[in-house]
Amino acid sequence: AGIRAGDRLLKLDGKKVEDLIDYLFNLEGPRAELEIERADVHGVFVLDMPEGEDAGLELEHFKVRTCKNKCKFCFVSQLPKGLRRPLYIKDEDYRMSFLYGNFVTLAGLTGRDRKRILRQHLSPLYVSVHSTDTRLRNELLGNPKAPDIMADLVISLTTAYISTPR
């Protein structure tokens, strides 16, 4: 009975949950309805949470999207050998930027990602720009397919207030 470790959270108050952001975004109020999957069986649980307390659920961390750029200045590539393994992960994940303050180039965003950022007003995002000239930026990133950063920032700044470092 009840929610157990290993259960998969499918929906929260009728809204699909893909990751921690969806969970936090949709968890409102003192009562929540959770749709759970356990061994291919779906069940619905209602949580009543005392005011000021969280649901007490621990979600498995999402798979971090890694960077496909080959930046000439990549600080991760310049780290000395022998450090903790997590330090060598080259993430390029807007979710990590929103949740933990990691910097992203936005070069790996999909159309779906852009829509989600706007829909959920995910801000701030910490964007590493390097250059607003697309040709030069692509050269610096070592990624000839990186999109026009100004188009992403203009769309984002007018709707979601994505912040850039000064």
UniProtKB/TrEMBL annotation:
One Pfam match: Radical_SAM_2
Stored InterPro entries: Put_radical_SAM-like_N (IPR045375)
Every Putative radical SAM N-terminal domain range: 52-154
The protein's name: Putative radical SAM N-terminal domain-containing protein
Source organism: marine sediment metagenome
